[in-house]
UniProtKB/TrEMBL annotation:
Stored Pfam families: 5_nucleotid_C, Metallophos
Any single GO BP term: nucleotide catabolic process
Record has Nucleotide-binding as a keyword: yes
The species this protein was found in: Oceanobacillus profundus
Keywords annotated in UniProt: Hydrolase, Nucleotide-binding, Signal
Keyword Hydrolase set for record: yes
Domain Calcineurin-like phosphoesterase: residue ranges: 8-205
Protein name per Swiss-Prot or TrEMBL: Bifunctional metallophosphatase/5'-nucleotidase
GO molecular function terms listed in the Swiss-Prot or TrEMBL record: hydrolase activity; nucleotide binding
Length: 468
């Protein structure tokens, strides 16, 4: 006898709730069919369901996301970096207190030796006809952030080595729930013959019909739940082994939205707006935001970041602020709306010559107009860089292109090419190759759990208050 069983999964929703009612529609229909046929099926999420760029998530510190997963009937989840490093230790510790599903993440550890009661390294499940399945969750090791929040993420291969032998002896099938990214997933498949399926995320890759490496099928469903993934495994009870492994993703952007879920989200949004409705400051003149010009609000925010981090200088890109602020009461909701990014301040060490190069690159047209997606940035374009603690003199070529003529310290002294300077900026620039000198800096001091919008609130209260 052959038995088929099914895993439906989502990954990297990033609180894109406008798509969530379609997720629920798809899952209801798919699971109803499997249940009608008496086929074993489970629903799982691979992390980054939470993203504090959305007001619902911000207002509830992710608890609303957990309720949505509960309501949708999820069975198992692992955590992504957005669950892990964008909250305080206590907020993550209590995130899943009300979860109706199980959370597996084998490489996450609390450094105070108090593990959350919901956290399990592995979970074992069984099909209707007795096939035993072991699942292990893994998340990306952003320890530069985790350790500041009193967590530690162990290396994924070290953890797999620890648990793989026990899994091989206790279950028939091994599935890795991986918020590690496609490259690591492929290496896991190559290293571990016993792994049958790797359901992935983190790097937002879309594998429409899976990828087969060694004995494993690898799959992932892109981002924002435009797709839902399905893994189908076929077990031959006579041969006592898997005889087929399939993985597919379905485009669900055309589906009808589940009405009950839409109503739930409507209520959640109203509650979030109420929770974020506290007035931070009253202003008597509008604060203009312009992505390509110097503005008082961005200059003052950059000044605040320099002072708060005690850096020699600071630099922030204008694209961090999405909208201008009108006259009147400014609430936490307003601040979140115009600065939604889960971005922390960071101080990096740069030699003088590296600092000058970073300034030069940041004022190029290509940099300012870059429509960045990712690295915590939730805006449209990077925009012009603002500076505090240094003076930047620019000129223009005949073709109209701006260029940097010289960079001086605040007191007018020239920058020493060989001296080390402590530069505060957005942690976005410590990833990838946007500003290579920043990303490659040997010293990075991240400031958590504060986001840049927390310093924006501080700036507004200190620099722009109006009392009638």
């Amino acid at each position: 006898m052959e038995e088929k069983f099914y895993f439906y999964y989502t990954n990297d929703l990033h609180s894109d709730f406008k798509q969530w009612p379609r997720v629920v529609t798809y899952l209801k229909e798919a699971r109803a069919l499997r249940n009608q046929r008496g086929e074993s099926n489970w629903t799982i999420d691979i992390g980054d369901h939470v993203d504090r760029s959305h007001s619902i998530t911000e207002a509830t510190m992710g608890k609303a996301n957990v309720k949505l997963l509960n309501d949708a009937g999820y069975d198992y989840v692992t955590i992504g970096n957005n669950e892990g490093i964008t909250m305080s230790h206590q907020d993550l510790y209590h995130l899943y207190d009300e979860a109706a599903f199980e959370v597996t993440c084998a490489n996450l550890h609390s450094t105070d030796n108090m593990q959350p009661p919901w956290l399990r390294p592995t979970v074992n499940i069984e099909t209707k006809h007795g096939v035993k399945i072991g699942m292990i969750g893994l998340t990306a090791p952003f320890n530069a952030f985790y350790e500041l929040l009193n967590w530690y993420v162990s290396p994924e291969f070290e953890v797999l080595d620890k648990y793989m032998e026990d899994l091989e002896q206790s279950v028939d099938i091994i599935i890795v729930m991986s918020h590690l990214g496609i490259t690591i997933d492929q290496e896991i498949a190559r290293r571990y013959d016993a792994v049958d399926a790797i359901i992935g995320g983190h790097t937002h890759h879309l594998l429409r019909s899976g990828e087969y490496i060694n004995n494993a099928v690898i799959t992932a469903a892109g981002k924002h739940c435009a797709y839902i993934g399905e893994v189908i495994l076929t077990w031959d009870h006579k041969q006592k082994k898997l005889v087929k492994k399939e993985a597919y993703t379905a485009d669900i952007t055309h589906l009808e939205k589940d009405a009950e879920t839409e109503q739930t989200l409507h209520v959640m949004l109203n509650e979030a707006n109420s929770l974020l409705g506290e007035t931070v400051v009253q202003i008597d003149s509008p604060l203009t935001v312009n992505w390509y010009k110097d503005t008082p609000i961005m200059q003052e925010l950059t000044n605040t970041v320099k002072e708060w981090t005690k850096a020699d200088a600071a630099m922030l890109n204008n694209g961090l602020l999405l909208e201008s602020l009108p006259v009147g009461a400014i609430t936490y909701g307003d601040i979140h709306r115009i600065c939604p990014h889960p971005i922390n301040p960071v101080v990096v060490d740069l030699k003088g010559n590296e600092l000058i190069e970073v300034v030069r690159v940041s004022l190029t047209k290509e940099f300012m107009q870059l429509a960045l997606k990712g690295f915590g940035f939730r805006g449209k374009v990077l925009g012009r860089m603002m500076f505090a603690g240094i003076q930047v003199e620019t000129g223009f070529h005949k073709n109209g292109e701006e260029y940097v003529k010289q960079v001086l310290l605040e007191n007018g002294e020239e920058i020493d090419p060989d001296r080390t300077y402590y530069i505060a900026t957005a942690d976005t620039f410590t990833f990838g190759r946007l500003l290579p000198e920043v990303a490659k800096s040997d010293s990075k001091q991240y400031f958590v759990p504060e986001f840049l919008r927390d310093l924006l609130a501080k700036t507004l209260r200190a620099k722009f208050p109006y009392y009638s």
